[in-house]
């Protein structure tokens, strides 16, 4: 089998957002230039279920490569299909689910979500949040968490993961190493969590261990600083090799894909431009980097990553390992959508 070029490999590390609900020749040209193999959908891309299915099919047919589509489909306020009234099940927020539903019901929720997403051509659900909510923390997590009891969060998250993945849709445990105690929203400013190491281990990392043991395919990191886990002040988990490579990969033995949160969030903007953030995230150990807006910015990032690999600033050996993981993931989840009923 032909080995991938640096450009193809860098494209395989990008997950990009698209500008709207239509596919133009200009958009396809941009995506081909980026060698993109993963896209993320938002409400701006969604007019109807029929339109989404045709949108994804058109992307597949015109890009002539293995393509995976993902969406944030948590339930409650994080539901990119929320404006559509029919054709898709809209589940309540995780907090409500955690307070009222059984494990069997949550697993059934995952199965229903998977079947409905598959019919559209979507094979990755960026859910569940496995963050354990701490009283007084910022609302950015709030009702997206299954609750404040780690054992309850752990069991419900595992049930959802198993439901999704039993039907061929990848689940994503987020936001590593735990966002439930965050004092402010990382969409705006860089926060710091100062909980003790034993408390982070006992409460906030426990659901990630459970998700890994359950075989979760994807874990998303957070743009939050955790100095009590050994990093210097001001260093977010996104850029922390100690957390992503040493702890998540080596110590916790996670073998799936690690994806960053959106690199265009406000938390990272004081720490350098987008290409620099992407390089630092990959140095930390991420397989996929998420760029949700502006394909022109994605192009600048793509060019910078190609230069970084070409000059040896980023490791080619590490890229080869990442590419093996990405190819395995594509083989597992990249199937044609189920025809509509």
Structural commentary:
- It is a single chain.
- This protein is α/β, with parallel strands linked by helices and 341 residues long.
- It has one domain (6-333): TIM Barrel (Alpha-Beta Barrel), CATH 3.20.20.
- The chain has twelve helices and ten strands.
- It has helices at residues 6-13, 25-34, 49-63, 94-100, 103-120, 150-166, 197-204, 206-213, 241-251, 274-284, 295-310, 316-333, and strands spanning 14-17, 38-41, 68-71, 73-75, 78-79, 124-125, 170-176, 218-221, 257-262, 288-291.
- The chain has an eight-stranded parallel barrel with strand order 1-2-3-6-7-8-9-10, surrounded by five helices. Strands 4-5 form a two-stranded antiparallel sheet.
- Strand 8 (218-221), helix 9 and strand 9 form a beta-alpha-beta unit.
- Helix 2 (25-34) packs parallel to helix 11, helix 5 runs parallel beside helix 6 and helix 6 (150-166) runs parallel beside helix 8 (206-213).
- The two termini are 37 Å apart.
- The mean pLDDT is 95.
């Amino acid at each position: 089998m032909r080995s991938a070029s640096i450009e193809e490999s860098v494209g395989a590390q990008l997950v990009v957002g698209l500008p709207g609900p239509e596919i133009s020749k200009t958009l396809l040209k941009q995506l081909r230039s980026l060698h993109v193999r993963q896209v993320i959908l938002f409400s701006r891309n969604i007019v109807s279920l029929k339109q989404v299915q045709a949108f994804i099919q058109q992307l597949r047919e015109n890009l002539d490569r293995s393509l995976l589509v993902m969406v944030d489909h948590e339930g409650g306020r994080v539901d990119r299909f929320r404006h559509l009234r029919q054709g898709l099940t809209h589940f309540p927020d995780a907090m409500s689910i955690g307070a009222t539903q059984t494990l069997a019901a949550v697993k059934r929720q995952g199965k229903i979500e998977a079947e409905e997403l598959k019919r559209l051509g979507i094979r990755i659900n960026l859910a569940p949040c496995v963050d354990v909510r701490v009283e007084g923390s910022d609302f950015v997590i709030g009702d997206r968490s299954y609750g404040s009891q780690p054992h309850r969060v752990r069991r419900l998250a595992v049930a959802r993961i198993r439901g999704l993945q039993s039907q061929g849709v990848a689940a994503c445990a987020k936001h590593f190493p735990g966002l439930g105690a965050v004092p402010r929203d990382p969409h705006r400013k860089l926060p710091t969590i100062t909980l003790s190491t034993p408390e982070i281990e006992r409460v906030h990392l426990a659901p990630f261990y459970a998700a890994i043991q359950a075989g979760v395919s994807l874990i998303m990191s957070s743009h939050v600083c955790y100095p009590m886990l050994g990093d210097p002040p001001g260093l977010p988990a996104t850029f922390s090799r100690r957390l992503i490579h040493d702890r998540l990969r080596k110590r916790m033995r996670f073998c799936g894909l690690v994806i960053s949160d959106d690199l265009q969030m406000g938390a990272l903007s004081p720490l350098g431009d987008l290409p620099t953030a992407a390089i630092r995230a990959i140095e930390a150990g991420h397989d996929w980097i998420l760029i949700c807006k502006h394909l022109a910015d994605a192009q600048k990032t793509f060019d910078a990553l190609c230069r970084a690999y070409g000059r040896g600033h980023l490791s080619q050996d590490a890229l080869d390992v990442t590419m093996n993981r990405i190819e395995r993931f594509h083989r597992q989840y990249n199937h044609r959508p189920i025809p509509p009923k």
